[in-house]
């Protein structure tokens, strides 16, 4: 398998994990297949709020060992895809 294919498969795994965790932790009334990768987390997308944002930060720490700092660009929480890119870039090696 090429490096590109490996990266694509790894991204799919992260997207699946994120969607599944969001649905379970935030009690989102959608299935994974109903959440597009480019769905906005806030506003007209999943309609999350500041309490949900805090829960996402907890999810990042517990699931991926990522501790978000104030210096991190908050745009990682714009869409599911942005969140996946942030995870892939910042997660701790397993």
From TrEMBL:
<dbReference type="InterPro" id="IPR009081">
    <property type="entry name" value="PP-bd_ACP"/>
</dbReference>
<dbReference type="InterPro" id="IPR036736">
    <property type="entry name" value="ACP-like_sf"/>
</dbReference>
<protein>
    <submittedName>
        <fullName>Acyl carrier protein</fullName>
    </submittedName>
</protein>
<dbReference type="Pfam" id="PF00550">
    <property type="entry name" value="PP-binding"/>
</dbReference>
<feature type="domain" description="Carrier">
    <location>
        <begin position="9"/>
        <end position="91"/>
    </location>
</feature>
